[in-house]
Design brief:
heterodimer; A: alpha+beta; two-stranded antiparallel sheet; B: mainly alpha; two-stranded antiparallel ribbon; 5 strands; 6% strand
């Protein structure tokens, strides 16, 4: 998963796109080590454990769990994977760029 | 202490004999019924052990192209391109024999375990859907009053979309017919989860979750109770659906800095719950 996510961050570095993680590793030291070792290039909330407050509120019971949120903050996809996820990201990024362009031309 | 316990045991045995009066009259002795059951159970266990061996072999054969590719050191991308032969799908290969054996040993614990296994395997594969339906018929015919049915229901909401209507019918029967609250609660919960997946039936799902909360809140769910379990599901069903505004998250980034989800507004976000384990 890490190499693919890293490549997404690189691919969309000039576009309105970000990965936001919620990390549930058992200690913050461990989380920092994982970030460094895997050259993770996105930010993550640290949730303390799989039963942490964010995961509990979001009712997460399996990892990884994925949500795709559009530029307006609306949940658009849940638990998409692989090519389906990549296609969905592309669609949402193009949509966001089109909206930005429309804003500018107003 | 020990002698007293023994005496207590004897008293219980006598009471059990008195309670089972009429049944005793029809069978040669209550013990022989137990022995017959045990024999049946042992035979069932043995039969399913054999089938599980076949299942493992079938799985090995099915995943062979992937195992070989991994040994050759192919990348994840190349691995994704490998297509597995649907005719070698272990459910298709061993499933029919498993169904026959379930029929033969219907009523035993071993067959109930096999039903659970079959539902998990067949309930997620469209071409094996008919097998899942057979399993549900067997469960309805032989295990509707059985307390252990709860084990089979626990993950039933993970079934495929194609399987969902049949599963909903089955769960509705279980909820209304089972005499055990644990079974009713598990059935009602799974039914709620399936109904909640689709927009058209989400309000039904919400109503069922509330029913679980109101009627079965005190029933245990793992180390917790349904009242607690359902809280997260209610929040998810109301606020975490496609089309909802993502709820705010405020917390600390791994580096220690404060961060909030809404500050990423204007960007498409891949929200990823992860951990390295």
């Amino acid at each position: 998963m890490y190499p693919h996510e890293r490549s997404l961050v690189e691919k969309y570095s000039a576009d309105p796109f970000a990965i936001v993680g919620i990390n549930s590793d058992s200690s913050i030291e461990k989380a920092r080590e994982v970030v460094e070792k895997n050259k993770i290039n996105w930010l993550s909330f640290y949730d303390g454990s799989p039963g942490g407050p964010i995961s509990t509120r979001w009712n997460v019971t399996g990892w990884p769990t994925i949500y795709l949120i559009d530029a307006k903050g609306i949940i658009r996809y849940k638990d998409v994977r692989g090519k389906e996820m990549d296609d969905a990201i592309e669609l949402l990024v193009q949509e966001a760029k089109a909206e930005q362009a429309a804003e500018k031309s107003k | 202490m020990i002698p007293r316990l023994r005496r207590y045991g004897t008293v219980c045995l006598v009471i059990a004999f008195m309670l089972s009066g009429p049944a005793v009259a029809f069978s040669s002795s209550p013990d022989s019924v137990g022995v017959a059951d045990e024999k049946m159970e042992a035979a069932a266990e043995k039969a399913f052990e054999e089938i599980n061996k076949k299942m493992s072999e079938a799985q090995e054969a099915y995943y062979k192209p992937l195992t070989e590719a991994r040994e050759k050191g192919l990348s994840d991308k190349e691995m994704e391109k490998i297509e597995l032969d649907p005719e070698l799908d272990p459910v298709m290969v061993v499933g029919p024999e498993m169904l026959k054996t379930i029929d033969k040993y219907a009523g035993t614990d071993a067959a109930l375990g096999a039903c659970d296994q079959m539902l998990a395997l067949a309930g997620r594969s469209e071409s094996a859907g008919w097998m899942a339906e057979k399993v549900m018929s067997a469960l309805k015919a032989h295990y509707l009053k059985n307390e252990k049915l709860v084990d089979v229901l626990r993950y039933s909401h993970y079934c495929s979309e194609a399987m969902a209507p049949a599963m909903c019918d089955f769960l509705s029967v279980v909820v209304s017919e089972s005499p055990h609250r644990e079974v009713q609660a598990a059935g009602c919960y799974s039914l709620a989860k399936i109904k909640g997946k689709k927009e058209e039936t989400r309000s039904e799902g919400l109503a069922l979750l509330k029913k679980v909360q109101d009627e079965y809140g005190d029933v245990s769910y793992g180390r917790s109770v349904y009242a607690d379990k359902v809280k997260g599901d209610l929040f998810e069903m109301k606020n975490l659906q496609v089309g909802c505004v993502a709820p705010e998250i405020i917390g600390k980034e791994i580096s220690g800095k404060l961060m909030q989800l809404s500050s990423f507004r204007g960007k498409v976000i891949l929200l990823d719950f992860w951990g390295d384990w």
